[in-house]
Every structure is written in C-alpha cells, then in structure tokens.
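Follow-up to my post from last week.
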Amino acid sequence: MSANLPVPLLEAKAVAKHFGGVKALRDVSLTIRRGEIYGLIGPNGAGKTTFFNCMTGLYVPDGGGFVFAGAPLVADAPHRAAERGIARTFQNIRLFGNMTALENVMVGRHVRTRAGVLGAMLNNAATKAEEAAIRQRAIDLLHYVRIEDRADDLAKNLSYGDQRRLEIARALATEPKLLCLDEPAAGMNATETAELRELIEGIRRDGTTILLIEHDVKLVMGLCDRVAVLDYGALVIEDVPAVVQKDQRVIEAYLGA
Amino acid sequence: MNKWLNPRSAFGIALITIALLGLPFVAAMGGQAWVRILDFAILYVFLALGLNIVVGFAGLLDLGYIAFYAVGAYTWALLASPHFGLHLPIWAILPIGAGLACIAGVLLGSPTLKLRGDYLAIVTLGFGEIVRIFMNNLNAPINITNGPQGITLIDPVTIGGLKFSGNTQLFGLTLSGPMKYYYLLVALAILVIIINLRLQHSRIGRAWQAIREDEIAAKAVGINTRNIKLLAFAMGASFGGIAGGVFAAMQGFVSPESFSLMESIMILAMVVLGGMGHIPGVILGAVLLSILPEVLRYGVGPAQMALFGKMLVDPESLRMLVFGLALVLVMRFKPAGLWPSPERKRELSEAAK
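User reply:
Got it. Predicted complex:
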C-alpha cells in the first residue's frame, strides 16, 4: 500500500440530500483512497445508507456530487454506477431468492458480458464461450467466498451467513473497483463476524477498495484503515480509528461512553 | 450435441415427430373441424409462449397481449386483401407484422416501466382495449380497418406456389387447408420453443429473472432494467404479431371482436395454469385450454341427452361453467400450475409449510 502517496478513488463533494424537511445528508465531503478499507459509522438514522444510495445512483443527491476514479459519477441510473465499478450489498439482504446461488453470481457478470438476444437465439460459438466463462467465473467466486457446496441451492434457502457471502460474491462478479458493504455483520454471531472479517481483508488484499457501513464498532475499528463518522447527516470526523475513537464528539454522538 | 445422439432421446424425438405428423390425419377422421381445433391449439401454444417471455420470464403482468395479436392480424389483413388491393407475399407481411407489433410493444412498455403488479395489469388491460376500439372505429373519416364489419377475403398463406387453402394432393394423400396450416403452425411453434429455451438460459434470460425477483438488486448489479424490460415487451409482442398474421390468413377474415379482453385473459390463463416460466408447462396449458372448451362444446350436449334424456342446461353456458370449475380446481390443487418448473414447485411447497 502506498500510504505515503494516497490516490483518491472516490471523492464525495458536499453531498446533500433531503426528504421533505428532513435533511438526511448535509454537505458531506469525504475521500476514499485506493486500496483502503474505509469505515462509515454513525447512529441509526445518521444518513449512512442514504449516502450509500446517493453514491450508487438509487437516489439523486440534491447538492454536491461524486468523483470516482478521476471522472464525475453521473447520478442518473444505478446500473451505470455498477458499470463504472461500484458494487454494493444491501443492509437487508437482497438476493434473487428463487434463483440458485450460482445463478445469482452469474447475474452479477451481466455488466461485464455482452451476449444479446440474437446471440442467445443463434447460440453461436461466441455466445457459448461467453456463457462458459460466466459460469466458470461464478463458480470461482463461490469458491472464493467458500459457499461452493451450495451452488445449486436456491438463494433463499441458504443460511443467513451464507446469504451475506453470496451477496458479496454477486457484487464481486461485477469486477468492482469499490465494494460497498452495508452492515455486512448485522445479525452475525462472533464466529461468523470473524470469518467475515477474514473475507473482507482477503478482498482488499486482492486489490478491491472497500467501503464498510457497520454498527459493530469493534469490527470497524479493528478492520478499517480510516473511519468517517456521520451524525444527523453531517460528517463529524474522518481519520484513522485510533483518533476517531478518542474524539470527544464521536464519543458523545455515537459511542455513548 | 451428445444428448441428441443418445438412443433414448433419439427414439423419443422420432416418436414425437411421428405423432405430430400423424395427428391431423387422426383428427380429420372426426371431421375437418377437429383439424381446425388442432390448428388453434398450436396457434395458442405460439401465443402463450410469446406471452411467457413477458409474464413468465420477466414477471411483468400483461393483460393486453391480444393487442399485439390484433396488430399482426390487421397487418396481414390490410396488406393481403382486396380492401386496399394489396397482395404482398408472406415473406414481406410477417416481418412487417412482427415489426409493427414490436413497436406497439415498446409503445406499451415505455410508459409502464415504473409500474408493477396490479398497476401494470390495469394499464396493459387498457392498452388492449384501446387497440381493439381503434380497430372498431378506424373506418371514418378514412376507412382503414373497415370498422366492426372487419376485413374479408384475406389471402391465404402461399409459399412457393403452394396455396394453404383448399386441398392439395401429395404422395397420394389429400391434404386439406387446415392440415397444411397445421404443419406450418407446428414449424413456427417449434421455432418459438427453441427461442424460448435458448433465451431462458442466456444472459438476457437471467437478467429477466433477476428483474422478476428483485428489481433494485438487479439495478445494483448493473442491469439496465429499462432496456431489458422493453426487450421483453418487444419480443413477446413480435411473437404475438406473427401469430396474428397467420391467424388472419387462416381465417380469411378479421374483425375487432376476435381481439377482446377475454382472449388476453385466456392466453394469460394458459401461461399461469400450465406453469409460469416453464416451457413444457406453458405448452400443456395452451393445448388443454384451447381444446377443452371445444371438447366440452361437442360433449356436454350429448352427455345431457344420455344422462337425463333431455337438455336441462344450454350447452353453451354449461360449457363455460364446467370450464370455469376446472380452472378453479386446478388453482386450488395445483397452484404452481399443472406442470411447474422444479424450482417453482419447490418454492410453493416450501411456502405452504
């Protein structure tokens, strides 16, 4: 890691979002650097998920914007964010429940493959080769998150922990530069959380930058290189965990100690 | 490739081929009316598989499907009848009909992209009615569709000098008009079955399924849901357009009343009762639902005479009563359809636990 020469991957510039009178995000500016694990924490309703949704194109911000990998993110369609290299998981898991685990990951390859209707109808050599590659990559990803033995099970029949892993595998299938995890440890026990931590560290080692929204303070502080704290839609602090932990405003707002 | 060389499946395919080839001769023993019923059964298979792309694969509830069938039928009627004096060949009309239906599909699809479930059903239902009412009223100020009287004397299908109406002698066999249409329709149906099968297990098919399951998650993994949904509408509509063209040629006559809401509902019922999204199920549903009412038409009258010695209930109303009851029973005891896909079966049996 080039800690001396940090390269920004994602810059949020004064992002604002309000729902009626509620100001969910007040001019939030932060920078995620290439190759780091970046934590975003804050009490319930602080605007973490809203920030996520603005970034991934589900919401259109009312002010400000994002610069991703050197070019502005156009906040029009979520599929474009995925195209640019931003993948996400959801706070309350959103898998394609009645598709198998393998098919779920195969759908993730959609944005990096091209076969259209004509290819499918003719089933020509190029389409067959692409289809085989999609399948192989999906199998590899299931291995990567260690649920390869559940490949042919319907996603909704997987255990909670495996569903989380599958969602990560599906997100990785889009070949993201930035992987955004929305509370991946929610509802997990200590063992599962430890395994998840290992998985996240592995993903970072393999070259993907990670943005982590999490309630589990211990996990965030132990895992993240830098942490940002949101409170009432505003950025309180953005720094390394050791500094954030000692910050008086953070303790008041969130840690409650 | 190897699975086609497997002797057991080769035997199965041979058996099905012989059955499909011989079927119209068996039906003809009961009169040409039964061959026509067979023709319509295959036509409905074609239509149901077209609708299956929209409803079964992409999960978009479309109650106006018959509109595309109407567009295809009127395209044929206007381009190959004395009405405008045009007599274009099938190679021109079917693609034009499919293309116009495709455009109609995109026209219906684009304003309804954000709608789902019941709301989409209502809008598509309205669309189907609009098209029918247009056909009914486009006889003034300029007479385009000839209004409720419909268009008559439509050219039959002609391929390479072979006219599909009237009898043809071939290898010592007499092929009647409906028989020839039967073979044409079977060929078209096989084509649409292959397209359905291939689409289902393709990148596009998976994208449709993903949208059906969770549209937001589908967007998040980079699926352009707008285009993929429009594609489903366009493809389903094109098949409807082709079916409509063959229907017009086969009947020699079209009028707006062939394209009522009831027809849309029947086709949807074929898809749902057979097993939504499951191609063999949809075929079964289409065959049963098109043949059963006809069997009842010929069956309930004599059955009453045999049982009670007189007509107690008008056969026409009894027919629909029995038919409705059969639908209710299927939905009660086989909610996933008569022949659901293995996944869907599992899904529903788990939900019931």
